[in-house]
Amino acid sequence: MRTLRRGAPTTAARTRQRRSPDPGETFSPGDPVEVVLDEPGQRVAHFEAVVVARSTNPRGYTVEYDALVESEGSGSDSDRPLREVVPARSVRPRPPPRWRTLEAPVEYAPVDALLNDAWCLGVSLGDPNESGKFRVCFPVMRKVMEFDASDVRPHLEWVSGEWKQRSDHGMADPENMPYKKGMRIEVSKLEDNCVVAWMPAVVAETFWKSNLLVEYTVSKSEGTTTPEIVDVKHVRPCRPGPQGPTIGFCINDEVEAFQGNGWWLGVITDVHLGLKYTLKSAYLGMEIQLSQKSLRPRYDWVDGLWKQNSQPRTSPKNLYFFQIFVKLEFGGPIFHASWVALFLF
Protein backbone atom coordinates (compact mmCIF):
# COMPACT_ATOMS: atom_id res chain seq x y z
CA MET A 1 0.00 0.00 0.00
CA ARG A 2 1.46 3.34 -1.01
CA THR A 3 1.38 6.17 1.54
CA LEU A 4 2.51 9.77 1.36
CA ARG A 5 4.37 11.63 4.05
CA ARG A 6 6.81 14.47 4.51
CA GLY A 7 10.45 13.67 4.99
CA ALA A 8 13.88 15.25 5.02
CA PRO A 9 15.13 16.47 1.63
CA THR A 10 16.85 13.70 -0.29
CA THR A 11 20.58 13.77 -1.02
CA ALA A 12 19.82 14.44 -4.66
CA ALA A 13 17.69 17.43 -3.71
CA ARG A 14 20.46 18.87 -1.53
CA THR A 15 23.03 18.64 -4.32
CA ARG A 16 20.97 20.15 -7.12
CA GLN A 17 22.76 23.28 -8.29
CA ARG A 18 20.90 24.01 -11.50
CA ARG A 19 19.76 27.63 -11.76
CA SER A 20 16.12 28.71 -11.74
CA PRO A 21 14.71 29.60 -15.17
CA ASP A 22 14.80 33.22 -16.23
CA PRO A 23 11.53 35.18 -16.38
CA GLY A 24 9.41 34.07 -19.32
CA GLU A 25 11.13 30.69 -19.74
CA THR A 26 9.24 27.43 -19.85
CA PHE A 27 10.56 24.73 -17.57
CA SER A 28 12.87 21.95 -18.64
CA PRO A 29 13.78 18.69 -16.92
CA GLY A 30 16.12 19.44 -14.01
CA ASP A 31 14.82 22.97 -13.35
CA PRO A 32 14.27 23.73 -9.64
CA VAL A 33 10.74 25.07 -9.15
CA GLU A 34 8.04 25.60 -6.57
CA VAL A 35 4.60 24.00 -6.79
CA VAL A 36 1.62 25.78 -5.30
CA LEU A 37 -1.12 23.67 -3.79
CA ASP A 38 -4.48 25.18 -4.67
CA GLU A 39 -7.18 25.40 -2.04
CA PRO A 40 -10.59 27.05 -2.49
CA GLY A 41 -9.93 30.77 -2.52
CA GLN A 42 -6.35 30.33 -1.33
CA ARG A 43 -2.89 30.05 -2.87
CA VAL A 44 -0.74 29.92 0.20
CA ALA A 45 1.63 26.92 0.23
CA HIS A 46 4.58 26.40 -2.13
CA PHE A 47 6.55 23.13 -2.13
CA GLU A 48 10.07 22.96 -3.56
CA ALA A 49 10.48 20.47 -6.39
CA VAL A 50 12.43 19.71 -9.57
CA VAL A 51 10.95 19.25 -13.03
CA VAL A 52 11.31 15.67 -14.27
CA ALA A 53 9.46 15.90 -17.58
CA ARG A 54 6.88 17.89 -19.48
CA SER A 55 3.31 16.67 -19.69
CA THR A 56 0.84 17.26 -22.51
CA ASN A 57 -2.35 15.82 -20.99
CA PRO A 58 -2.92 17.71 -18.83
CA ARG A 59 -0.58 20.47 -19.93
CA GLY A 60 1.99 20.76 -17.20
CA TYR A 61 4.96 18.97 -15.70
CA THR A 62 5.95 15.85 -13.87
CA VAL A 63 7.76 17.06 -10.76
CA GLU A 64 9.73 15.39 -7.99
CA TYR A 65 9.39 17.03 -4.58
CA ASP A 66 12.41 17.78 -2.43
CA ALA A 67 10.79 16.94 0.91
CA LEU A 68 7.65 14.94 0.12
CA VAL A 69 8.14 11.19 -0.03
CA GLU A 70 5.92 8.21 -0.75
CA SER A 71 6.17 4.82 0.91
CA GLU A 72 5.33 1.46 -0.62
CA GLY A 73 6.17 -0.56 2.48
CA SER A 74 6.58 -0.33 6.24
CA GLY A 75 10.33 0.33 6.33
CA SER A 76 12.14 3.61 5.70
CA ASP A 77 14.13 1.93 2.92
CA SER A 78 10.97 1.89 0.82
CA ASP A 79 10.63 5.69 0.90
CA ARG A 80 11.25 7.58 -2.29
CA PRO A 81 10.67 11.19 -3.41
CA LEU A 82 7.10 11.80 -4.47
CA ARG A 83 6.51 12.37 -8.17
CA GLU A 84 3.28 13.67 -9.64
CA VAL A 85 1.90 15.52 -12.65
CA VAL A 86 0.85 19.11 -11.89
CA PRO A 87 -0.76 21.73 -14.16
CA ALA A 88 1.50 24.41 -15.62
CA ARG A 89 -0.35 27.17 -13.73
CA SER A 90 0.75 25.58 -10.42
CA VAL A 91 4.47 25.76 -11.22
CA ARG A 92 6.76 28.75 -10.84
CA PRO A 93 10.53 29.30 -10.53
CA ARG A 94 12.12 29.45 -7.11
CA PRO A 95 12.60 33.04 -5.90
CA PRO A 96 16.13 34.44 -6.39
CA PRO A 97 18.41 33.65 -3.41
CA ARG A 98 19.16 37.36 -2.93
CA TRP A 99 15.67 37.89 -1.54
CA ARG A 100 16.55 35.62 1.38
CA THR A 101 19.38 37.92 2.50
CA LEU A 102 17.47 41.21 2.61
CA GLU A 103 16.80 43.12 5.83
CA ALA A 104 14.19 41.89 8.28
CA PRO A 105 10.59 42.39 7.16
CA VAL A 106 8.72 45.25 8.76
CA GLU A 107 5.68 44.76 10.94
CA TYR A 108 2.63 43.48 9.03
CA ALA A 109 4.64 42.83 5.86
CA PRO A 110 3.63 39.70 3.90
CA VAL A 111 6.20 36.92 4.26
CA ASP A 112 6.63 33.24 3.46
CA ALA A 113 7.60 30.98 6.36
CA LEU A 114 8.89 27.42 5.99
CA LEU A 115 6.23 25.32 7.72
CA ASN A 116 5.88 21.55 7.26
CA ASP A 117 8.25 21.61 4.27
CA ALA A 118 6.22 24.28 2.46
CA TRP A 119 6.60 28.04 2.11
CA CYS A 120 3.36 29.33 3.63
CA LEU A 121 2.00 32.85 3.33
CA GLY A 122 1.85 34.76 6.61
CA VAL A 123 2.17 38.20 8.16
CA SER A 124 5.35 39.41 9.85
CA LEU A 125 5.00 40.70 13.40
CA GLY A 126 8.14 42.81 13.19
CA ASP A 127 11.67 42.56 14.57
CA PRO A 128 13.06 39.26 15.91
CA ASN A 129 12.72 38.48 19.60
CA GLU A 130 15.58 38.09 22.09
CA SER A 131 16.33 34.59 20.83
CA GLY A 132 16.63 35.86 17.26
CA LYS A 133 13.43 34.23 16.03
CA PHE A 134 10.79 35.93 13.92
CA ARG A 135 7.11 35.80 14.85
CA VAL A 136 4.77 35.15 11.94
CA CYS A 137 0.98 35.21 12.05
CA PHE A 138 -1.16 32.96 9.85
CA PRO A 139 -4.54 34.74 9.65
CA VAL A 140 -6.47 31.83 8.16
CA MET A 141 -5.32 29.42 10.90
CA ARG A 142 -5.31 32.23 13.51
CA LYS A 143 -1.96 31.07 14.84
CA VAL A 144 1.29 32.87 15.67
CA MET A 145 4.52 30.86 15.34
CA GLU A 146 8.25 31.53 15.70
CA PHE A 147 10.80 30.84 12.95
CA ASP A 148 14.55 31.07 12.43
CA ALA A 149 15.65 33.88 10.14
CA SER A 150 16.65 31.35 7.46
CA ASP A 151 13.07 30.06 7.36
CA VAL A 152 11.43 33.42 6.62
CA ARG A 153 11.54 35.29 3.31
CA PRO A 154 9.67 38.25 1.76
CA HIS A 155 6.53 37.19 -0.06
CA LEU A 156 6.93 37.47 -3.83
CA GLU A 157 4.44 36.77 -6.60
CA TRP A 158 5.26 35.44 -10.05
CA VAL A 159 3.27 37.72 -12.38
CA SER A 160 3.62 37.65 -16.18
CA GLY A 161 7.11 36.20 -15.97
CA GLU A 162 8.40 38.65 -13.36
CA TRP A 163 8.81 38.69 -9.58
CA LYS A 164 6.61 41.28 -7.88
CA GLN A 165 6.99 42.41 -4.28
CA ARG A 166 3.95 44.18 -2.94
CA SER A 167 4.18 47.20 -0.64
CA ASP A 168 3.56 46.43 3.01
CA HIS A 169 0.30 48.31 3.57
CA GLY A 170 -0.74 49.04 0.00
CA MET A 171 -1.89 45.55 -0.83
CA ALA A 172 -5.51 45.73 0.27
CA ASP A 173 -7.84 46.45 -2.62
CA PRO A 174 -10.21 49.17 -1.36
CA GLU A 175 -12.77 48.30 -4.02
CA ASN A 176 -12.94 44.60 -3.18
CA MET A 177 -12.27 44.62 0.56
CA PRO A 178 -15.69 44.25 2.24
CA TYR A 179 -14.51 45.73 5.54
CA LYS A 180 -13.06 49.23 5.86
CA LYS A 181 -10.84 50.79 8.50
CA GLY A 182 -12.93 51.93 11.48
CA MET A 183 -15.84 49.63 10.63
CA ARG A 184 -17.52 47.83 13.53
CA ILE A 185 -17.57 44.07 13.05
CA GLU A 186 -17.88 40.79 14.91
CA VAL A 187 -15.07 38.21 14.99
CA SER A 188 -15.73 34.51 15.50
CA LYS A 189 -14.41 32.69 18.55
CA LEU A 190 -13.46 29.14 17.63
CA GLU A 191 -13.25 25.95 19.66
CA ASP A 192 -12.26 22.80 17.77
CA ASN A 193 -12.76 24.74 14.52
CA CYS A 194 -16.39 25.46 15.41
CA VAL A 195 -17.86 28.92 16.02
CA VAL A 196 -19.04 29.21 19.64
CA ALA A 197 -19.35 33.00 19.95
CA TRP A 198 -19.03 36.33 18.15
CA MET A 199 -16.85 39.08 19.64
CA PRO A 200 -17.50 42.80 18.94
CA ALA A 201 -14.47 44.48 17.35
CA VAL A 202 -13.33 47.38 15.16
CA VAL A 203 -11.21 47.15 11.99
CA ALA A 204 -7.92 48.89 12.84
CA GLU A 205 -6.16 48.16 9.54
CA THR A 206 -6.74 46.37 6.26
CA PHE A 207 -3.83 44.84 4.38
CA TRP A 208 -2.73 42.08 2.09
CA LYS A 209 -5.58 40.53 0.11
CA SER A 210 -8.00 39.52 2.84
CA ASN A 211 -6.39 40.27 6.20
CA LEU A 212 -7.68 42.55 8.94
CA LEU A 213 -6.05 43.89 12.07
CA VAL A 214 -8.92 43.98 14.56
CA GLU A 215 -9.22 45.50 18.02
CA TYR A 216 -11.79 44.02 20.36
CA THR A 217 -14.15 46.56 21.89
CA VAL A 218 -15.11 44.64 25.05
CA SER A 219 -12.49 44.17 27.74
CA LYS A 220 -11.58 40.63 28.68
CA SER A 221 -11.15 39.39 32.26
CA GLU A 222 -7.80 41.16 32.63
CA GLY A 223 -9.36 44.45 31.60
CA THR A 224 -7.35 44.74 28.36
CA THR A 225 -7.56 43.28 24.88
CA THR A 226 -4.89 42.24 22.40
CA PRO A 227 -5.23 43.16 18.71
CA GLU A 228 -5.45 40.18 16.38
CA ILE A 229 -4.81 39.62 12.68
CA VAL A 230 -7.57 37.55 11.09
CA ASP A 231 -8.70 36.51 7.64
CA VAL A 232 -12.04 37.90 6.48
CA LYS A 233 -13.49 34.37 6.60
CA HIS A 234 -13.58 34.75 10.41
CA VAL A 235 -15.42 38.10 10.32
CA ARG A 236 -18.95 39.33 9.76
CA PRO A 237 -20.61 42.78 9.94
CA CYS A 238 -22.24 43.92 13.16
CA ARG A 239 -25.75 42.61 13.52
CA PRO A 240 -28.49 45.15 12.74
CA GLY A 241 -30.63 46.26 15.67
CA PRO A 242 -34.16 44.89 16.22
CA GLN A 243 -36.83 46.21 13.88
CA GLY A 244 -40.23 46.87 15.43
CA PRO A 245 -41.37 45.47 18.81
CA THR A 246 -38.96 43.54 21.00
CA ILE A 247 -38.96 39.88 20.04
CA GLY A 248 -40.02 37.12 22.42
CA PHE A 249 -38.54 33.64 22.35
CA CYS A 250 -39.90 30.12 22.67
CA ILE A 251 -38.42 26.80 23.74
CA ASN A 252 -35.89 25.40 21.20
CA ASP A 253 -35.26 28.82 19.62
CA GLU A 254 -31.59 29.26 18.65
CA VAL A 255 -30.28 32.51 20.08
CA GLU A 256 -27.12 34.45 20.91
CA ALA A 257 -26.60 35.57 24.50
CA PHE A 258 -24.34 38.43 25.51
CA GLN A 259 -22.08 37.16 28.30
CA GLY A 260 -18.80 38.71 29.42
CA ASN A 261 -17.07 39.63 26.17
CA GLY A 262 -19.27 38.49 23.34
CA TRP A 263 -22.37 36.89 21.90
CA TRP A 264 -22.44 33.16 22.74
CA LEU A 265 -24.53 30.64 20.82
CA GLY A 266 -27.21 28.69 22.65
CA VAL A 267 -30.75 27.30 22.70
CA ILE A 268 -33.75 28.35 24.81
CA THR A 269 -34.78 25.46 27.08
CA ASP A 270 -37.37 27.17 29.30
CA VAL A 271 -39.52 30.31 29.44
CA HIS A 272 -40.21 32.18 32.70
CA LEU A 273 -42.33 35.07 33.91
CA GLY A 274 -40.90 38.56 33.56
CA LEU A 275 -39.38 37.94 30.12
CA LYS A 276 -36.68 35.65 31.42
CA TYR A 277 -35.37 32.53 29.76
CA THR A 278 -33.21 29.52 30.51
CA LEU A 279 -30.43 29.20 27.94
CA LYS A 280 -28.28 26.14 27.29
CA SER A 281 -24.84 27.12 26.02
CA ALA A 282 -23.88 25.41 22.77
CA TYR A 283 -20.21 25.38 23.85
CA LEU A 284 -20.24 24.67 27.59
CA GLY A 285 -23.49 22.72 27.71
CA MET A 286 -24.47 24.44 30.96
CA GLU A 287 -27.76 26.26 31.57
CA ILE A 288 -28.13 29.84 32.74
CA GLN A 289 -31.13 32.13 33.25
CA LEU A 290 -31.03 35.45 31.40
CA SER A 291 -33.34 38.36 30.78
CA GLN A 292 -34.60 39.08 27.29
CA LYS A 293 -32.42 42.19 26.93
CA SER A 294 -29.32 39.94 26.92
CA LEU A 295 -30.62 37.79 24.07
CA ARG A 296 -31.04 38.13 20.34
CA PRO A 297 -32.17 35.69 17.61
CA ARG A 298 -29.38 33.74 15.98
CA TYR A 299 -28.54 34.83 12.46
CA ASP A 300 -25.79 33.52 10.17
CA TRP A 301 -23.95 35.69 7.63
CA VAL A 302 -24.12 33.67 4.39
CA ASP A 303 -23.04 35.02 0.99
CA GLY A 304 -23.51 38.62 2.09
CA LEU A 305 -26.97 38.09 3.58
CA TRP A 306 -28.32 37.54 7.09
CA LYS A 307 -30.14 34.22 7.44
CA GLN A 308 -32.10 33.33 10.55
CA ASN A 309 -31.92 29.81 11.98
CA SER A 310 -35.27 29.81 13.82
CA GLN A 311 -38.19 32.19 13.67
CA PRO A 312 -39.41 33.93 16.84
CA ARG A 313 -43.08 33.26 17.48
CA THR A 314 -44.48 36.54 18.75
CA SER A 315 -43.97 39.94 20.32
CA PRO A 316 -44.34 40.36 24.11
CA LYS A 317 -47.34 42.68 23.65
CA ASN A 318 -49.25 39.58 22.46
CA LEU A 319 -47.85 37.29 25.14
CA TYR A 320 -50.08 36.68 28.14
CA PHE A 321 -49.33 34.68 31.29
CA PHE A 322 -51.99 32.92 33.32
CA GLN A 323 -51.24 31.11 36.57
CA ILE A 324 -53.91 28.63 37.61
CA PHE A 325 -54.06 27.17 41.10
CA VAL A 326 -56.06 23.99 41.57
CA LYS A 327 -56.83 22.37 44.92
CA LEU A 328 -57.67 18.69 44.76
CA GLU A 329 -59.11 16.76 47.69
CA PHE A 330 -59.39 13.00 47.49
CA GLY A 331 -60.07 12.10 51.09
CA GLY A 332 -56.45 12.52 51.98
CA PRO A 333 -53.68 15.10 51.84
CA ILE A 334 -54.42 18.21 49.84
CA PHE A 335 -52.44 18.53 46.64
CA HIS A 336 -51.68 21.88 45.09
CA ALA A 337 -50.72 22.16 41.46
CA SER A 338 -49.93 25.15 39.32
CA TRP A 339 -49.42 25.73 35.66
CA VAL A 340 -48.20 28.65 33.59
CA ALA A 341 -50.16 28.87 30.36
CA LEU A 342 -48.97 30.98 27.42
CA PHE A 343 -51.70 32.15 25.08
CA LEU A 344 -50.51 33.61 21.81
CA PHE A 345 -52.68 35.95 19.76
Automatic annotation (TrEMBL):
Biased composition, class Low complexity, residue ranges: 1-14
Domain Agenet as annotated: residue spans: 25-99, 103-160, 177-244, 247-303
InterPro entries named in the record: Agenet-like_dom (IPR008395), Agenet_dom_plant (IPR014002)
PANTHER family: AGENET DOMAIN-CONTAINING PROTEIN, AGENET DOMAIN-CONTAINING PROTEIN-RELATED
Name of the protein: Agenet domain-containing protein
Chain spans, region Disordered: 1-34
Any matching Pfam family: Agenet
